[in-house]
Amino acid sequence: MIVVSYDFSNDKTRAKFAKFLTKFGRKLQYSVYEVRNSQRVLQCILKEVELVYKKQFTNADSILIFRACEGCKKKVRRYGYAANEEKEVVIFE
């Protein structure tokens, strides 16, 4: 599991980065995404940050990327809506 948290002072940059992250994962909170855990995805995100966003940073901007191992992922506690996202759903019509 990879968790990406970000904060940009520029609304346009923030929206662009959020749209970029939706390609790889789902939104957990306003500026927090859970991203598929793969080396390829991680490298793609890091490359995008380095090539596009890093040069736009101000002292008020930040991106944090947390990578959790499979053992750590099992320790995550989910409550409310987040708890249901991990369950498989079967729909009968």
From TrEMBL:
Highest taxon above the source species: Bacteria
Binding site for Mg(2+): D7
The UniProt record lists the keyword Magnesium: yes
Molecular functions per Gene Ontology: hydrolase activity; metal ion binding; RNA endonuclease activity
Cofactor: Mg(2+)
Transport as UniProt keyword: no
UniProt KW keywords: Antiviral defense, Endonuclease, Hydrolase, Magnesium, Metal-binding, Nuclease
Enzyme Commission code: 3.1.-.-
A Pfam family it matches: CRISPR_Cas2
Residue ranges that the Swiss-Prot or TrEMBL entry lists as coiled coil: none
GO BP annotations, alphabetical order: defense response to virus; maintenance of CRISPR repeat elements
Similarity remark: Belongs to the CRISPR-associated endoribonuclease Cas2 protein family.
Assembly description: Homodimer, forms a heterotetramer with a Cas1 homodimer.
Purpose of the protein: CRISPR (clustered regularly interspaced short palindromic repeat), is an adaptive immune system that provides protection against mobile genetic elements (viruses, transposable elements and conjugative plasmids). CRISPR clusters contain sequences complementary to antecedent mobile elements and target invading nucleic acids. CRISPR clusters are transcribed and processed into CRISPR RNA (crRNA). Functions as a ssRNA-specific endoribonuclease. Involved in the integration of spacer DNA into the CRISPR cassette.
Protein name stated in the entry: CRISPR-associated endoribonuclease Cas2
